[in-house]
Structure of Putative oxidoreductase:
Amino acid sequence: MLKVGVLGAGHLGKIHLRLLNQSEKYELVGFFDPFEENALKVAAEFGYTKFDTMEALIAAVDVVDIVTPTLQHFECAKLAIEAGKHIFIEKPIANTVEEAEAIIALANKHGVKGQVGHVERFNPAFTAVKDKIKNPMFIETHRLAEFNPRGTDVPVVLDLMIHDIDAILSVVRSKVKSVNASSVAVISDSPDITNARIEFENGCVANITSSRISMKNMRKSRFFQKDAYISVDYLDKVCEVVRMKDAPEVPGDFDMILQNAEGIKKQIYFDNPGVQLNNAILDELETFADAIQTNTSPIVTLEDGTEALRVAYMIIDSMEK
């Protein structure tokens, strides 16, 4: 088992602590949180070992799970990597692209592995259809959340939209050609709702909307490709695949047939895969343990996290212009 420690015991940090403590692939050594009152409370309530310094925790483990505010990601990652420890780091990978690139360089120099916590890659609705998403040419996503003061210190692009940016980049195998975006700051000092249009060199277009001031929660993506429409509901964990094929000469009574203006007939049918429910956070943590043990590439690499951050800042730059 890999010895693991958690940096940061806030809302998400406590979830990571609980899951790592349950995991059969890790031995939870303890945690460090700079806020002494919170650290003492977490240690007393859950029985996790509290470390007095970040350096002491890092020295005691094989893997460092970084669940601190984004501004501290680079500092924590640097200390861990230079100590020869593998790192799991929550999204976004860093506060700036330059910091993210420095983390990659450090990891390569010291020969350690890193994974970024883009948890929607492990959402069962997405994993059920990912292999069916082939060369999508139009993508539309909506990630809408009710207002929560936590996270409003950063633009909604870095808080929410980056989930969809990463998922889109994982299925569109093409470079970003251009980005256009608009946003509104309704409650916060930074934008609360943003719409972005990303054009890729292969002609694919992604239209992404994220909001943290909605009346209800929604996390849906739709992928359109040749002869297929694929929808993913990350929130309700359901997916749908609608395909088209040449209609049979003699359709059945219940066949769904469409005919275009040229007289070509197509049959619509459903190709819905089963969704195996899981704990996505536990899965991302445990697949990282597998990557370390088998010396293979993590599912969400440091490079993936950096590219998602790069595109996020392209969107932010477009908003500001």
Summary: The mean pLDDT is 94. The domain at 2-112 is CATH 3.40.50.720 (Rossmann fold). Residues 302-320 form the longest helix (19 residues). Residues 159 and 245 are 40 Å apart (CA to CA).
